[in-house]
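Task 17 of the worksheet. Students: predict the tertiary structure of the chain below and write it out as structure tokens. Keep your answer in the requested format; marks are given for formatting as well as content.
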Amino acid sequence: MPVPTDIADAIGRIALRDRAAFDWLYERTSAKLFGVLLRILKDRSEAEDALQEVYVRIWQKADRFAAAGASPMSWLIAIARNHAIDRLRKRVPATAPIEAAAEVRDAAPDPEARAIGSGQKARIDTCLDRLDADKAEAVRAAYLEGYEYKELAERFAVPLNTMRTWLRRSLQKLKACLEE
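Model answer:
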């Protein structure tokens, strides 16, 4: 069977229980869905477990995808997001004796820590602004939004190794800028 041409095609084939299409879809979308899960769950191990469960749901619900409706990536992200929210709701809060509440420290940073944090963010933003616009955008997409190198290479229409070089050199420039 030929390789799927896009995500919607892969989902359609998965509805027909095409294992190769499922593998193709996993390879192209797992990093993005993992990023969604990690942002919501804030625990790498739990996000990894949830990712496997999300792909089981995709396998089971592929026949419910309406190609004329939402974009296929939006449909996949909605499944991942909803699953992560379901997992959050099932978490059982740990209980402690009421006396322990008097010793609970406020987890929010104090004013000094907030000032230092905002200063560091400003320094990073200043250093990112020193990079070429494309390279700064690629760094943000890779390290803040979770895009894979391959996706970025396609997005910027450059070879994969060029993208790797862009990111490596950009990180070196950021490090040098921050050390100034």
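Marker's comment: The domain at 7-90 is CATH 1.10.1740.10 (Rna Polymerase Sigma Factor; Chain: A). The mean pLDDT is 85.
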